[in-house]
Amino acid sequence: VRKFVLDFFFEEKQNLRFDVGIPGKKCGNIIFTAEELSNCRDIATMQLCANKLDKKDFFGKSDPFLVFYRSNEDGTFTICHKTEVIKNTLNPVWQPFTIPVRALCNGDYDRTVKVDVYDWDRNGSHDFIGEFTTSYREFSRGQSQFNVYEVKKEKRTGNTYSLQHLSNPSQPTSLHYMSPYQMNAYAMALKAVGEIIQDYDSDKMFPAYGFGAKLPPDGKISHVFPLNSNSENPNCVGIEGVLEAYFQSLRTVQLYGPTNFAPVINQVARCAEDVTDGSQYFVLLMITDGVISDMVQTKEAVVNAAALPMSIIIVGVGPAEFDAMEELDGDEVRVSSKGRIAERDIVQFVPFRDYIDRQGNQVLSMARLAKDVLAEIPEQLLGFMKTRDIEPQPALPTSSTTTTAPLGLNNLCI
C-alpha cells in the first residue's frame, strides 16, 4: 500500500535493492511499478458507508472493509488505500480518511479508481463481496451531496487488474511499441497480409480504422475512428500509407477500453451493402490483442455480414488467450446470434505467435502468416458469388501494352 517517492536523475545509474523474507528461500515475487509523479498537491478527504452488503459469515453478518486501487499507465491496478474493518454489520460506516490525490490517481481527475469490498477473515482469506469503479472527479462531486455506487458482485481473478487498451506505445512492454530496430506485431501482421492482398485491389486506396481510444482534442472515446484523422476520407494510399497512418495515430490518441468489435464490422458492412452485384468484394483485416467487450453485438454483426460480399480476417497478437476469437471463427461451429446462424463462414482467425520464426526472421514469419490467413478468402468469395448466381465476367480485350481484367476482390478494409 505504501508508495515510495524517489528523485530521478537522468545522468546517473540508480540501483534499487529489495530484501523480503528469509534469505536463501524463495518467498514469492515482487511486482515493481514506477510512474512519473504529477505536480498535483491536492489532498482528498472522504468518508464512505454502505447499505445491505452480502452476508458472508456463517455465524454472523460480515466484517467489511474497502480496498482502493489506482490505475497505472500500463493498465494494471495497484492498492493505494485500505480502510479499517467494521465488525458484524451489513451497513458499515467507515472513518473519514485523507489521501494525496496523486497517490489516488496521479493528479488525473478522470483516471479510473477501483474499489473492492471484502469481508475480513482472521486467516487472511478475505471473502470478496463486490466492486465498483469511479474517478476522483466523481468522488469530488460528493462534497455537498451523496455519491451512490452499485457494488457489482462479479468475482475477479488474480492479483493484477487489466484495464483494456491503456498500454503506452512508448513502453517496450506495449504490443504497440514503436522500436527503431524492428516492426511491432501489429505492423508485421498488417504488412504481411496487406502486401499480398493489395495486388487484388484496383485503386490501392485502403480505408483504415482504429477502435478503442480517446481522441483529441476532447478525449472522447471512439470505437471506430479513421487512422488518418480524416473522417470524410479514411482512405490511405497503399499499405505503406496505412502503416504511416497507424504510427501517426499512436502519437496522437490515447489507447482506451472497452474494446468493441461490432462498430468496425458494421462500418465495413455498410459499405458492402451498397455493392452486392458481384463487382466488388470486401476484406476486413482486424488486428487485436484478444480482448473483446461486446461479444454479443459482434456475433450479431458477423451473422449480418455473412450475407454480404465480405470476409473478416482476425489476427491475434500478444500472449493472451484467444478463446473469444476462436468462437468467431466458424470452422467448427457456425456463428449464431438470436437464433440466426451465419449464412456462411466468413471469419478466419489466427494467433500471430504461432507463425513467429524462432530465428527472428521477420520476413519468414510474415510469409507464414499471410499464407494461412488468406487461404480461405478465395473459397469465401466464390461461396458468395455462387449463392447469388453471379457469373464471372468475361476478360477485357488485351492490347499490345497492357493486360487488364475485372477483379472480384476490390477492397481491403483495415
UniProtKB/TrEMBL annotation:
Residues 393-414 are annotated as: Disordered. Residues 396-407 have a biased composition (Low complexity). GO terms for biological process: cellular response to calcium ion. SUPFAM superfamilies: C2 domain (Calcium/lipid-binding domain, CaLB), vWA-like. CDD domains: C2B_Copine. The keyword Protease does not apply. GO terms for molecular function: calcium-dependent phospholipid binding; metal ion binding. Residues 26-149 form the C2 domain. The keyword Metal-binding applies. Keywords: Calcium, Metal-binding, Repeat. Belongs to the copine family. This is Copine family member 9. It comes from Oncorhynchus mykiss.
